[in-house]
Specification:
This protein is of the alpha+beta class and 185 residues long. 29% of the residues lie in helices and 41% in strands. It contains 4 helices and 9 strands, in the order E-H-E-E-H-E-E-H-E-H-E-E-E. The strands form 2 sheets. Strands 2-6-5-4-7 form a 5-stranded antiparallel β-sheet. Strands 3-1-8-9 form a 4-stranded antiparallel β-sheet, with helices on one face. Strand 8 and strand 9 form a beta hairpin. The longest helix has 16 residues. It is globular and about 45 Å long. The mean pLDDT is 96.
């Protein structure tokens, strides 16, 4: 049975990526060991599935379709910068979503359906866009102060009118994402 690595995401509008890149450039000036997300790969993950059976994609798609049919397109505002798990122990640097009630409701309704298919329930969903992953503590203090400097940064607003089931192929140069199916809101 063949498998592929998959996740469900909201892509970022192209005009906002340029603004996000200005923030990433600030972090790149720091002498730190950070692996940055390629601009074309910037997205908000709604669910990471991991390796799934190709044969199960139709069933997964029908569950996504049934949930998405209950949602209209909605605005999201990308605002703020932070770190997971926190700024004392930085692993992930992210940009946030301001007033993310609709995103959370969409996630929760999707996750309920995915649990019925045997996927683990997400323990804690946090609406965010990963911009980089810190590999070592090198430069941590400067990274922390830069995160704090951008804690209230306003990137802009976009309309979410679709979510995308994506395939992720891991390569030494970084992941390659491919759209498997687009679900219009």
């Amino acid at each position: 049975m063949s498998q592929l690595r998959a996740f469900l995401a909201i892509d970022v509008d192209e005009d906002l990526k340029a603004k996000m890149y200005k923030i990433i450039k600030e972090f790149k000036q720091i002498d730190a060991n950070i692996k940055y997300v390629d601009l074309e790969n910037l997205h908000l993950t709604l669910k990471f599935f991991g390796d799934i059976d190709v044969e199960g994609i139709d069933l997964l798609s029908s569950k996504i379709e049934s949930v998405v049919s209950g949602f209209d397109k909605f605005p999201v505002k990308i605002k703020g910068c932070g770190a997971f798990p926190n700024t004392k122990r930085i692993k992930v640097i992210w940009l946030g979503i301001d007033d993310d009630a609709i995103v959370k409701r969409l996630h929760d309704e999707l996750d309920k359906e995915f649990v019925k298919l045997g996927f683990d329930k997400d323990k804690r969903f946090s609406s965010h866009l990963t911009i980089g992953r810190m590999k070592t503590a090198k430069g941590k203090d400067k990274v922390k102060s830069t995160i704090e400097e951008f804690s209230e940064v306003e990137i802009g607003e976009m309309t979410v009118d679709k979510i995308i089931l994506k395939k992720s192929t891991l390569t030494p140069q970084g992941p390659i994402y491919e759209d498997l199916e687009i679900f219009e809101l």
